[in-house]
Design goal:
Strand content: 15-25%
Strand order of the largest sheet: 1-2-3
Number of helices: 2
Radius of gyration: 18 Å
Order of helices and strands: EEEHH
Distance between the termini: 40 Å
Shape: elongated
Structural class: alpha+beta
């Protein structure tokens, strides 16, 4: 059996684990929209948790990177 397969119908990739194909659910796409609650949380972090916000920026975990 192949270790990796791709399904052309739904565009998902699968990995063989213990005889069962499991979908690869981690997205590699980095361009995504932040919703309303995510924007509010980001604003809160910027205003009240400045050390955490700076850490996120330097580790490139923020959308601007």
């Amino acid at each position: 059996m192949k270790k990796y397969i791709s399904d052309g119908k739904n565009g998902l990739d699968y990995t063989l684990v213990n005889g069962v194909y499991l979908p690869n659910l981690i997205s590699t796409e980095m361009n995504y929209e932040i919703g309303m609650w995510g924007q509010r949380h980001l604003r809160y972090i910027k205003q009240h948790r400045k050390v955490l916000y700076t850490s996120l920026l330097t580790n490139c975990k923020q959308k601007k990177c």
